[in-house]
């Protein structure tokens, strides 16, 4: 199964933010948990309806999002 197929977006769920499997877990929330230092096992223990592949899908989605052809400087 393609990990990215686990990421869904619907206007009725979390205001259209990308979420995992239509659940109310936005990708950004899962990435924040991971970046705070929580490991996969801790997150899965706290959120029992999540699966390991959901966390991997969030990471894969973020990696895909950061692929750019060129970065333009932002003028302040």
Automatic annotation (TrEMBL):
<dbReference type="Pfam" id="PF04255">
    <property type="entry name" value="DUF433"/>
</dbReference>
<dbReference type="InterPro" id="IPR036388">
    <property type="entry name" value="WH-like_DNA-bd_sf"/>
</dbReference>
<dbReference type="InterPro" id="IPR009057">
    <property type="entry name" value="Homeodomain-like_sf"/>
</dbReference>
<protein>
    <submittedName>
        <fullName>DUF433 domain-containing protein</fullName>
    </submittedName>
</protein>
<dbReference type="InterPro" id="IPR007367">
    <property type="entry name" value="DUF433"/>
</dbReference>
């Amino acid at each position: 199964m393609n990990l990215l197929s686990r990421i869904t977006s619907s206007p009725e769920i979390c205001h259209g933010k990308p979420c995992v499997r239509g659940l109310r877990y936005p990708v950004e929330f899962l990435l924040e948990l991971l970046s705070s230092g929580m490991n996969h096992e801790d997150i899965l223990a706290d959120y029992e309806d999540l699966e390991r592949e959901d966390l991997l899908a969030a990471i894969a989605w973020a990696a895909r999002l950061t692929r750019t052809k060129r970065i333009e400087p932002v003028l302040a």
